[in-house]
Amino acid sequence: MMSKIFTASLLGMEADLVTVETDIQPGLPAMNLVGLADTTIKEAKERIRAAILNSDYPFPKHRITVNLSPAGRPKEGSHFDLPIAVGILLLGSERTARQEKTAFIGELALDGKVKHIRGALPLAMGLRERGIRRLVLPYENLEEVALLRDLELYPVRSLRESIEWCLGRREQSAYKRKKKVKRKIMDQTIDFCDVVSQENAKRAITVAAAGNHGILLMGSPGSGKTMLAKRIPAIMPEMSYTEQLEATRIYSAAGLLSQACPYIGERPFRMPHHTISRAALIGGGNRPRPGEISLAHNGILFLDEFGEFDPQVTELLRQPLEDGQVTINRAWGSVTFPCRMMLVAAANPCKCGYLGDDRHTCTCSENQLSRYLSRFSGPVLERIDLHIKVPAVPAQKLEKKTTALSTAEMKAQVRQAAMLQKERYKGTDICFNGQLTQRQIQSYCPVTASANRFLKEAYEKLALSMRTYYKIIKVARTIADLHGTDTIDAYHIAEALQYRALDRFYRRPGNGN
Question: Which stretches make up the AAA+ ATPase domain (predicted)?
Fold first, then answer.
C-alpha cells in the first residue's frame, strides 16, 4: 500500500515542491525516513506516532517507509509533520478529489494539535508557483498566508480535522479573506516639528523619503541626527500589496512573525547596534537566514553611530546597495535574499564629535582623526545618495516655532512625489527614483540643456565619479517630482549638488585637496 501527499521544502526564500511517498510492507514495526531529511524531520517519527495515537487512530504495526521526493535535495523544518502523518493515515484509502493539487504544512504536538510553523508564506508561494491550488495549514499561520489572493486555504487545528477533511467527512469551505485592518506600529506622538530648527535637514529627508535615496546625517553630538532618523518612517509612502507580500515573506522565512504581528503592513525600520556581526547584518548560518539588510527590505535600515561600526562589516554593504539583493554561497549551493532598502546613517564628524563645530574645539590629534576617517569607506559613502551636515542648534533657535516643518506636511509632499513615480514606472519593477539604473535614467530623467551644462561643469570642478554623477541626476529627478515638474532643470541639479557637500569634507589631510 502506498500514498502520496504534497508539501514543500524551504531553502532561504525559495520553496520546492516535495512529494511525501509513504509505503507500508509486512515486517518488524519500524518507520524509516529517507530523502536527505535533517534532524528535525528525523525526530518527527516520535511526534507523529504520539500524535496519531492521541488522535484516536491506530498506528500501523508494520514496516513503514517515508520517502521525501526528490531525494537528492536537502530538506529541513518541522512543517513536514502533518503531511507525513496524513500520508500514514491515508494508507489503503482511495485518493479523493480533495487531495488533488492540495498540499499540507504544519507541525504536530504530541496530542495531535497542529502548531505554528516558520516560513509558511514562502512555502505557500512556492507551492502556488508549482500548480498547487489548495493548502491545508495551521490556524496560527492563516493571517500570514491569507495575503496570497489566489490560493484556497483550509486552516486546521488538529490532525483529526485534517484527515476528516481529506476523506470528505468534514465539510469546510475555503477561508474567506477579510479586509486587512491597517495596523499602527509607529508611535504617532513623535513629530518632525519636535526637532528644533534643522529645516535644511528636514528638506533633505523629504527628498530621500520621496525617492527612496540613502542618506548620511553628519553632525555634532546632540544636534538631532537620531531624532530625525527615527521619524523618517512616519513620512514614507504606504506599502503596496506587492511590497507587503515581499516583506512578510522575508519575516516569515526568518521566523519573526507571530499572532500579534501576522504580516508586515508598514515599512520595516531596523536599527542594529554597531557591534553587529557580519552574518547578522548580511545574513548567514549553515542554513542561511535573512540578515538585517534583508529584514529592512522595502523599508529603512538605520545605522546609528555609523563611525563605530566595524569597517569589515560596513564594507559588506557595497554590493547589496547596488544590486538590491545579497547572495550567500555555501558548499551545497547558494541562497539569495532581497535587500532593496533605504539606508539611513548617522555619525559624528570625528572621534570627539566636534570637528567643524563653531561652538566647540575639536580635540582629536591628527592620528586620531586619520584613524577615525579610515573607518568611512569611500566606496560605501559614494553609494549613499545624500550627505547632509546637521549643525548644532544655537541658543536663539531653541524655542520652537510654529513654522517648523511637521510630519504631516512632509508626508503630503512625499505622497505627491510617490504618486508621480508610481504613474511613471507603471508596468516596470521600479517603484522609486532611487532604484533607477543608468539606462533607465536616460529614459526617465529628461534634463534641460542648461541643467546638463551645469552638471557637467560640476562634474569637472568637483572631480565627481560616474556613480555620483548619476546619483545626482536621480536625486534631481526626485526634487523635480516634489516640485511637480516633468523635466529636470538647473535649480534641481543645484539642490541635488548641495546634498553632496560632504564629498570633499573627508579628503585626507595633506593629500593636496
Answer: 211-394
- Residue whose cell numbers read 549638488: 497
Q: What is the pLDDT of residue 170?
A: 87
DSSP 3-state percent helix, strand, coil across the chain (nearest 5)? 40, 20, 40
How far is Cα 116 from Cα 110, in angstroms, rounded to an integer? 14
Cell of 444: 526617465
Q: Are residues 243 and 381 located together in one domain of the fold?
A: yes
On the question of pLDDT at 1 being above 90, the answer is no
pLDDT at residue 92, as a whole number: 85
Looking at the domain assignment, is residue 483 inside a domain?
A: no
CATH code of residue 254: 3.40.50.300
pLDDT at position 454 over 50: yes
Q: Which letter does DSSP use for residue 272 in this model?
A: -
Query: What value, to the nearest 5°, has the Cα angle with vertex 49 and ends 46 and 52?
Result: 145
50 and 140 inside one domain: yes
Answer with the one of 366, 393, 419 that is the final residue of a domain. 419
pLDDT confidence band for 511 (50 / 70 / 90): very low
Those residues with Cβ within 8 angstroms of residue 462's Cβ, 6 or more apart along the chain or in another chain: 497, 500, 503, 504
The reply to whether 298 and 396 lie within a common domain is yes
Are 136 and 283 part of one and the same domain?
A: no
Is 61 within a domain? Answer: yes
Closest CA to 383 of 322, 425, 332: 322
Confidence at residue 509, expressed as pLDDT on a 0 to 100 scale = 45
The answer to whether residue 189 is domain-embedded is no
- C-alpha of 294 from chain center: 4
pTM above 0.90, yes or no: yes
Mode of pairing for the β-strands spanning 386-390 and 215-219: parallel
Residues ≥6 apart with Cβ < 8 Å to 66: 20, 21, 22, 23, 31, 32, 33, 34, 35, 84, 87, 88
Instruction: Give domain status of residue 503, yes or no.
Output: no
- The reply to whether 358 and 246 lie within a common domain is yes
> CA 136 to CA 155: how far, in whole Å?
6
Nearest Cα to Cα of residue 346 among 462, 477, 174, 205: 205
* Domain total of the chain: 2
CA neighbor of 47 nearest in space, from 85, 5, 6: 85
Question: How far apart, in whole angstroms, are the C-alpha atoms of residue 421 and residue 240?
Answer: 13
DSSP letter for 391, please: P
User: What whole-number distance in Å separates Cα of residue 465 and Cα of residue 110?
Assistant: 63
Cβ neighbours of residue 333 closer than 8 Å, sequence gap 6 or more: 11
Instruction: Provide the CATH number for the domain around residue 132.
Output: 3.30.230.10
Q: pLDDT per residue over 421-451, tens digit each?
A: 999 999 999 999 999 999 999 999 999 999 9
Of 170, 179, 109, which Cα lies nearest the Cα of 140? 109
Residue 17 and residue 158 in one domain: yes
Structural domain boundaries, residue 221: 197-419
Q: Which tens digit of pLDDT belongs to each residue from 377-419?
A: 889 999 999 999 998 887 777 665 556 788 999 999 999 999 9
Torsions phi, psi for 424 (to 5 deg): -65, -40
Strand duo 114-115 + 269-270: pairing: unpaired
